[in-house]
Structures are given as C-alpha cells and as structure tokens.
Amino acid sequence: MEHPIERRDPISGHWPAARDSGRRVFAHYMVGLTCDQQPEHWAHDIGAAKVAGIDGFALNVGSSDHWTSTQLDHAYGAAEDSGGFSLFLSFDMAAGCWSVPQVADLINRYQGSSAQMMVDGRPLVSTFEGPDWASNWPAVRNETGGICLIPDWSSLGPHGVGQRLDLIDGAFSWDAWPKPAQSKMTTVEDLLYKDNLQGKKYMMGVSPWFYTGKSNPNIILGRFPTPAKPGPDLPQWNKNWYCSSESLWHDRWKQVLEVMPDFVQIITWNDFGESSYICDASPAQVVKGAEKYVSGHSHTAFRAVLPYFIAAYKSGSAEIDWRGQDTAIAWYRTVPVRAQGHNGTVWGQGGTVSAAHGARDVVSVLAVTKGLACITIAIGDSRRVTFETTGRNPVSYFELPFDQHATGPVSLALNGRTAIGPEINAWCGHGKASLNAVAIHI
C-alpha cells in the first residue's frame, strides 16, 4: 500500500497535521512540577513543542496539588492562544486518591476548550496507572457525557488490559525503556498490546533516557576521590536505577515506524527527576535533589530530530520526501561509568545487577540527512572519528566508545557546522555520581 507524501508548508515551514491518518504525537507534562508557573512559561513550552512537531501535551495531574486548576487554566489558555496544539488530562492514580466528582469536574471544566484533544467527538482522557480505580470510570462517563479513555495500566500488562476492554477505548503503554539487564527495547510488548486491544486504540510510549539515583559525595585525598557514604538524591521516592538508553531515542522511533500505533506519547516533556525530559532548562521544575544530576545536562537536542520522525510516522512510512535541514545530535555521559561510584544503582527497574554492568560509555550520534554526508565526532584531542551516511535512508546512527583516557570537550560536525558539548572527564570530582546524559545538536 502506498502512502501519501507529506511536504512542509512553504509559507509557515511547518509539517502538516495528519488529517487522514489521525496519528498524533504527545508529550507527557508533569503539572505537579508547575507550582507558581506563569502563563508565559506554558506559552514557551507549547511553542517549543510545536516547532518539534509535537501535537500536544498529556497533562499529568495529582489529586492533592492546590495549584492544579490554576495551572490547567494557564495551560489551556496558552494552547488556545497558540492554536493547533491539543491538551488532555492524564490522572496520576499513583499520586493520591481521586473521587469520581473530582475527576468528572476537571474533565467537564476543560472539555469545551478549543485546545481539548477530542477523539471521535469525545474528550481524550488518560491515566498513570490506576487499574484498581477502573470500576469508577462508567460513573465518570455518565457525569461527563462520554470520554475516550486510553489509560496507562501497564502494571496489568497487555493480557491484563485485554481483559478490561469493556471499560476502555484503548491503552497507553508506559513500557518505553529496556527491561532489567537488557540493553535494547523490542516491539514485543507493543505488538501484544495491539493484539489484545482487538482494534481499540494503542498509544505507544517513547523516551530518550531514564536515570534516577543517589549522590556520591567525595572526599578528595590527593589526586583521586574517596567515596563517602552516599545519600539519596530524592529521599521522597525509593528509586535508584538506570535503564539502558545509549541507543534508545533512535531505536524507539524506528520501532514507532514499524508498529505505527494510533498515538505516540513521549515520556516525558519535563520529568527532570527521572532524567527523561526533553524540554528546555527549567530550574523551578527540578525537584530538590535532582539538580545534582540535572544541572549541566541539557536534553533539548533530543527534539532536533523529531520533525523527521513525526512526519514519517504521520505519513505511515519512513520513505517520505524529507525536505528539512540536515541535522545531527549526540548524547553521552560526562564521566565513564566505572570511574564513578554508582551507589547501588541497578540496571533497570526492579533489577538486581549493578548499572555499571549495563551502562556503556559511548557518544551516541543520530543524524537525519537528505543524502550522503560526513559526520565527525571528537573527544578533545584524544579521539576523532568521521562517519559517512549511506544516503539510502535519511536516518543514520553511530557510536564512539570512550574510556578514562578519552577526555575533553565533545565536538560534533556536519556540513561545515560544529557544535561543542561539555567535557568528558576521567573521574567524577564534583561530589556526585550521575548516569544522566547531556545532548548537543547541529
């Protein structure tokens, strides 16, 4: 089956919305991090998301945050002013207790907004977990006049979700990272969801990175650090794991083009504490403790390749007439994993193997080009490699391994343009351990 070719609008420069396919790409936005956030911040984030080709935000809301209604008003107001950007509520069922009136009231408050994402004439609604709350959704439907419910009940797995099809209109999978002690994602879980949903809508999760861990205060004795007793960076959550992410952004988007789900949700826009963010730096949104591994670790560059992937996804084929600018991104850790204390960080959620056995020290490079191109990646003066794209496929992926002997700023060059990123250091001498990445782009 041939798919229509989508082209960038010559006046606006934007890629067209997928009116025929109905496919949309959203980003998961943590409203719980927005206390005192001003409308201008929402307008900035919406503008940045639109430039990347993202269609809207899934607004994660908790039951007890006093700023929820104020911030939702700001978000919907900014989206209405912007136009062409959709929002929908994602009720965080793991963050407090919700009542039926509370959920229904929020849905009713915003379902008339021009920015509300509608599916088949009904407001789209999602969740983070909450299968134990499932029996309440029929009452919510009655009080709201109907919704399109696509929850994340990933704790049930595809088969468990498939046993509750009478309550839902589709499912969203939070399964966006490799499992414990695994280096790569597969599409096995995605295909199981599609099979078990029996034609109902599937929303696929995609993420660039995952790390949340413990600090490593060092006592400097001479040249080398001696680790002191580690303390938790985020004491309010019992989390200390890293999911293999060296090639994840590339792998997962290629899998989107294989699976072709009804919707895609990027996890996340702004969850700094779990290192999965792709937004611009926003110190006010960084939970206390996470700044130790977030500061200086920009993820903005991950967005640079989204226009191609989203356009291809919406067209239904990777074979699109790509007219965008050649671009490349690189992401890496700034200290070799074995040169820093990992403080019990495990490899994958629920894993038992140390993350030091799974994390690979590489500079990952992802490029989108219209034809043959040479990409040079260098680490200081110690290591330099030039890769050549094939020209047969717009997407190219490369890796440059490094160790404690390869140090210095990272440079990325393409078509006469160069980007310089933070230095790779031989050891962690700034009082913290971090398996987070920094990303750069040209």
Automatic annotation (TrEMBL):
Q: State the InterPro entries in the record.
A: Glyco_hydro_71 (IPR005197)
By its UniProt entry, which CDD domains does this protein fall under? GH71
Q: Name one GO molecular function term.
A: glucan endo-1,3-alpha-glucosidase activity
Going by the UniProt record, its keywords in alphabetical order are: Hydrolase
**Protein's name in the database:** Glycoside hydrolase
- Please give the organism: Parachaetomium inaequale
